[in-house]
Amino acid sequence: MPGGQASSNAPSRAFANTGDHAEPDKTIMQNWGNTGSQGVFVDSQPPKRSFFSPIVLAGIAVVLLFGFGVVGLGGAWMLGLFKSTPPRPPVNGNVNPTPSPGDPPVPSMTPDMVSIPGGTFNMGRNDGPREIEKPAHPVTVDSFMMDRTEVTNEEFQAFVRDTGYKTIPEHWVNGKPANGTEKVPVRYVNIDDVNAFIAWRSKRDGVTYRLPTEQEWEYAARNGSKSNLFPWGDRYDSKCAVLEEPSKEPKPVGSRTCPNDFGIVDLIGNVFEWTSSKPEVYPGNRSGSLKEMPEPYFMIRGGSYFQKPSGPQPISATYRIDIPASRRSVELGFRLVRSN
User: Fold this and answer.
1) pTM (2 decimals)?
2) Where along the chain do its domains lie?
3) Which pLDDT tens digit goes with each residue over 318-328?
């Protein structure tokens, strides 16, 4: 079954022959003076015109009303009813935070994936020096899509920035890849790191990514049913892979490689690549065996810039080795696939 890890209840095995918040209200008091008593005189003399004629009384009333109005307005002003209040920002506002000047934006990247049609091929080889690669045997693979390149420091940095992931690759400087290494394959990643990255990228893109199985990886590296020993053919070509690199450093993805028939690069060399497959002895191999291990092991493929194309451990599309799931190595990276 493609992708995924075996149940944690299953025994962990490895090849026996490998190791590696208001201001208070204000109150205003007002005292109005007593206007005194007014007498009514009855006299035989013609009555005198009272000072308090209706016109005068009306005038007094107007003055009093005006006074009340002025006092009322003054009180309202003192209470702050006419003060303008600046609008408050929304509690759950949609205002975007301003990025820090020294914090560059995370690049927006769309994975470059290649579609690989399914088919049957001969996995393994009969003529190599390593028993773990024997024998050649037919395997059928369903169609799938594979990253054109290995996952780079640049994409892994986007994952770290987006998720706050705490485990940073050992060779990064101040929590970032060194200048000039953005396009180099990410390294020092173990299975937990890879699975965290897979969950992030799958959620971001709305699809399900995973590591390739051993069978899928080799099928791609051998050009499907052509079963070539290398992605570019059956003979090693030094210009086609970052192997035995004098600088002892990997190269930017795709900078020195010959693609396979589907256009995938760096399947051989640059960095080893994790697969989702647990160790197993090929059917028909009578000399290989598995032993119980205290932690899960997984198969890795492709070789790295350290390895040689010849000698007792020659790197080719059939080269395979098992390592602990917790291993972080200067030589070890990954690429992803997804089912069609």
Assistant:
1) 0.72
2) 117-340
3) 999 999 999 99
